[in-house]
Amino acid sequence: MGFLENFEKGLERVVTGAFSKTFKSELQPVEIAAAIKNEMDSASSILSRERILAPNAFRVRLSSPDFARMRVLGQPLIDELVDLSTRHAQKQKYQFGAGLIITLAEDSSLPIGQIAVASQTQNVAVEWTPAIDVAGQRYLLTKARTVIGRDASADIQVDDKGMSRNHFEVLWDGKNAGVRDLNSTNGTKLDGRVIKESGMKPDSVISAGHSDFVFRVIAKSVTNE
User: Fold this and answer.
1) How far apart are CA 36 and CA 81, in angstroms?
2) CB–CB of 161/221 below 8 Å?
3) Which of 96, 156, 188, 221 could share a disulfide with 56, CB 3.0–4.6 Å?
4) How far is it, in rounded angstroms, from Cα 59 to Cα 22?
5) By the 8 A CB rule, do 220 and 129 touch?
């Protein structure tokens, strides 16, 4: 699946309904993704056979009407742009000198529909935030142990009769992730394999009851002052 197809699916997952309802004939978010991809490709430098350095900071300028429409999507749009751009860089084997950061800016001199992207390498600090995607919703994981189940006592409650009250938990130590079954009735699978406890990589799929949970690690960049 290509870069833009991935982006559309990601955006529809995070911003339920907003993609199709807010943007019809105007500038599409996927066009911003494509512009960032093209700028990343054109601005990357080959330092050696196994090292291609890409810029890590992208400033996307939009016309005033387009900027106002994109601002409706808020931070979820930026998160998906960062996530999908990171995936593209990994696929192309690009390396960043620092964490990836993307900003949108208003430019009243631009006509509607036009995008201008500038890139550079900035010194930024990156905060890696784990998340779980399920049934079109994204839940950021803010604790070392996050319990998921159908009971109200779970940290993430899912309306799934096939799940136990406290079905499984996701573990996060700030760098590494794991999943542990909590003696559930129907068991827990990780990427199709029944597990009791296992380490876990980004984009792993946890299956419990009738639901699939996708584990993500989102890069949130903060510019150093």
Assistant:
1) 9
2) no
3) 96
4) 23
5) yes
